[in-house]
Amino acid sequence: MAAAVIDGRASAASLRAQLTADVAAFAAAHGRPPGLATVLIGDDAGSQVYVAGKQRACTEVGIRGFDHRLAADVGRGKVLALLDDLNADPDVSGILCQLPVPAHLDGLELTDRIAADKDVDGLTVASAGRLALGLPGLRPCTPTGVMLLLAEQEVELEGAEAVVVGRSNLFGKPMSQLLLAANATVTICHSRTADLAASCRRADVLVAAVGVPHLVQGTWIKPGAVVIDVGMNRLESGLTGDVDFAAASEVARAITPVPGGVGPMTVACLLRNTLRASEMSLAAAGRGGASVPSGPGAGPTAR
């Protein structure tokens, strides 16, 4: 039997609809909506498309957007000063510095300048530490989206063998932490893994995110596994993932397509994080607010 195709577009649309209602309730209760500031440095065409999409998504759910664009040759001091201003601005709930940045700037330094409570990408050192220790905080958007898709599929993670192919700071490492927080037994594979195929065959849940088209073959899939393909590779034939979708679909229980799987959840979870950041700010100020679900892995890690 062919695998069920996990419809990330439908899941993201449902999440956005709920966020629209939650943002309206927040604005009615507190006199202002949550705000998301994006910082784009330079004129990279892909980054311009991504930022425009994020700003458009904000408008659609009622979040106020702050769109900051800086020249490619902007000095380090000016960028840091802008981030400091945004950290101090009470109307800005979340901040996102679009990567990559021009070569004369340090993307890690700029990202880490963002206050942890406004780090809607979940990429600062403080956010990574909170995740590793199981403390409340904002989690990276794409791994969070994966966890939500797994929950919708009613995948039992406790005690399951989960394999993450890819160890990037942006996705692989936080994905592994979230799965671990859900009590899965987690293996991280990478370019030095001795027998990648054998590791993948053990997985009840297999997550691939390395940027190599069709790296994961159908023969690598454990029968009945859930396969999450986070890869996004542009070929002459169009977009494709890291998993051989057709072959894997003959073996897996459920699988995400590319495009239309994990991708739509990333922006939806960014909006979700922005609303949550605004709630965290009010809670820190002792003013409370509407309840916002903390999301996968946002609280203490179980033993």
TrEMBL record:
Cite the Tetrahydrofolate dehydrogenase/cyclohydrolase NAD(P)-binding domain residue spans from the record.
140-280
Q: What residue ranges carry the coiled-coil annotation?
A: none
UniProt-listed InterPro entries:
Aminoacid_DH-like_N_sf (IPR046346), NAD(P)-bd_dom_sf (IPR036291), THF_DH/CycHdrlase (IPR000672), THF_DH/CycHdrlase_cat_dom (IPR020630), THF_DH/CycHdrlase_CS (IPR020867), THF_DH/CycHdrlase_NAD-bd_dom (IPR020631)
What function is annotated for this protein?
Catalyzes the oxidation of 5,10-methylenetetrahydrofolate to 5,10-methenyltetrahydrofolate and then the hydrolysis of 5,10-methenyltetrahydrofolate to 10-formyltetrahydrofolate.
Q: What is the lineage of its organism?
A: Bacteria, Bacillati, Actinomycetota, Thermoleophilia, Solirubrobacterales
Print the keywords alphabetically: Amino-acid biosynthesis, Histidine biosynthesis, Hydrolase, Methionine biosynthesis, Multifunctional enzyme, NADP, One-carbon metabolism, Oxidoreductase, Purine biosynthesis
**Ranges annotated as spanning the membrane:** none
Q: Which GO terms describe its biological process?
A: L-histidine biosynthetic process; methionine biosynthetic process; purine nucleotide biosynthetic process; tetrahydrofolate interconversion
Enzyme Commission no:
1.5.1.5, 3.5.4.9
Query: What binding partners and quaternary form does the record give?
Result: Homodimer.
Matching entries from Pfam families are given as:
THF_DHG_CYH, THF_DHG_CYH_C
The protein's matches in Gene3D superfamilies, at most eight in alphabetical order, are given as:
Leucine Dehydrogenase, chain A, domain 1, NAD(P)-binding Rossmann-like Domain
Its recorded reaction(s) are: (6R)-5,10-methenyltetrahydrofolate + H2O = (6R)-10-formyltetrahydrofolate + H(+); (6R)-5,10-methylene-5,6,7,8-tetrahydrofolate + NADP(+) = (6R)-5,10-methenyltetrahydrofolate + NADPH
Per the UniProt entry, what species is this protein from, by scientific name?
uncultured Solirubrobacteraceae bacterium
Q: Which gene encodes it?
A: folD
Q: Does the keyword Plastid apply?
A: no
Pathways per UniProt: One-carbon metabolism; tetrahydrofolate interconversion
Superkingdom of source:
Bacteria
| Ligand binding (NADP(+)) | 166-168
Question: Under what name is this protein listed?
Answer: Bifunctional protein FolD
Q: Could you say which protein family the record assigns here? A: Belongs to the tetrahydrofolate dehydrogenase/cyclohydrolase family.
Domain named Tetrahydrofolate dehydrogenase/cyclohydrolase catalytic: residues: 6-121
